[in-house]
Amino acid sequence: MLVATGGALGAVLRYLLTTFSKSLFVSSIYGTFSVNIIGSFLIGYLITSNVVYNFSENFIKFFLIIGFLGSFTTFSAFSYDVVELINSKKYITSFTYVFVSIFLCIMFAYLGTLLNKF
What we know:
- The protein is mainly alpha-helical.
- It has one domain (about 1-115).
- It is about 85% helix and about 0% strand.
- Helix 1 (about 1-25) packs across helix 2 (about 30-50), helix 1 packs parallel to helix 4 and helix 2 runs antiparallel to helix 5 (about 75-85).
- The mean pLDDT is about 90.
C-alpha cells in the first residue's frame, strides 16, 4: 500500500512538472532531465538523512524512496526521449543528454548524501 500510494503521488507530480516544463521549452527532455536530477538528489538525501529516525523505516523505504521517488524519476521516459532524439537524427544532442543526465543524476545523489554530513 505504501509503494502504490507513493507511486501514484510521484507519477502525478512528475506529470505536472514535465507538463509545466513543456510550456517553457519546446522539447520534453528538460522536464525528464529535471525530475531525474531532483529525484536523484532527494534519494541521496533521504538515504543518509536523520529524517529517517523521525519516520518508520518502511515509510521512508517503501513510500518515499521506492514508491514516490521511484515513479517521480523515470528511466523509461528518459529512454523514450533518447530514442526520439536518435529518430530525429539528433545524435550529438542524444549523446550529450545521456552523458549529462547520468553524470548529473549521480552527482546530485552524492550531493544529497553530503548535505547530511553538515
